[in-house]
Structure prediction request, 253 residues.
Amino acid sequence: MGSMAARAKAPTVDEVRGALHRLFIGVRGTALRKEDEVKAVELAAMLKELSRFRRDALLVDAAAGKAPVGLLAAELLGFARIAVIERDAGRVEACREAAARLTRRAEIEVRHADVGDLGAWPEAPDVVAALHACGFAADAVIDAAARARARFILLVPCCYGKGVAFAGGASKWATLMGAPRQGAVRRRLLDALVDAERTLRLESYGYEVTVAPLVSPTVTPHNLLWRARRAVEPRAMERARASLEQLREALGA
Ligand SMILES: C[S@@+](CC[C@H](N)C(=O)[O-])C[C@H]1O[C@@H](n2cnc3c(N)ncnc32)[C@H](O)[C@@H]1O
Prediction:
C-alpha cells in the first residue's frame, strides 16, 4: 500500500465530527444530528482503513451518498484523486456543494450514475470504499469493482433484503435445510448465506478476502467490513469457484 511517508495519520472521531459539520452543515452554532454522530464513528473507522493507503492513491467512493468517505479522505487524509459514484441526483448535488468547501486541493470527479454502470468506473482504481452500500448496491459494487480491476475493495454492506443477488437462493436453501419460520432466526441464517456467497464471489474474482467488524454492533448492526485485495492467485480462484458452484448447485440454481 505504499511507503509510510506518503500516508496520513488516521483522524480522531472528533476531527471527523468537525469536518462533517464544516463540509455538510456549515452553519455556525448548529450541532450534528444524532445520526451524524453515529456516522462520525463509522467514518473514523473507515478513514483509519484508508489511512493505510498512499495519499496519491485513486480512491472510488461507491454508492457514495453525499460522499462523506471520499470528501473526508480528501480533507483529513489528503487523498488527491477521488471518483464518487452515486445514483441519487439530490445527493450528488449535496456532494458537489460539500466538495466546494474542501480546504485541501483534490481532484474530485462526481459521477451521477449507477454503480453497476461500468462506464462510470475509472480503470484499475487503487481502492474502492463502499460504506453502507444498501441491498443490491453491495453486489453491484463487488462485480463492477472486480471488472474495473480495483486493487483493494473496502465494502460494508447495509440492509439485506429481497433485492440482493443471492436473496432468492438463500431463502430456497434455508427452506431445503428445514430452517424454522421464526423471523429473527431465519433472517440471520439468510444474511449469513448472502455473506457467504459474496465472500466466495470476491474470491472467485481473484481477491484475498478478510471479514471483520468495522465498528461495534452497538453503533450499527450492519458493521461488517469486507477487505479484499486483488491477488489473482489461480488455485485460490479455482477453489472459490468450486465452492461457489457447490453453493449454487445445492439450490439447483
Ligand atoms: C445507505 S447510503 C450510504 C451512503 C454513504 N456511503 C454513507 O456511508 O453515508 C447508500 C447510498 O447508495 C446509493 N445507491 C444505492 N444503490 C445504488 C446504485 N445501484 N448505484 C449508485 N448508488 C446507489 C443510495 O442512493 C444511497 O445514497
About this structure: The mean pLDDT is 94. Residues 90 and 181 are 39 Å apart (CA to CA). The two ends are 38 Å apart (CA to CA). The pocket of S-adenosylmethionine is lined by residues 63-65, 68-69, 85-88, 91, 114-116, 131-134, 137, 140, 158 (CB under 6 Å).
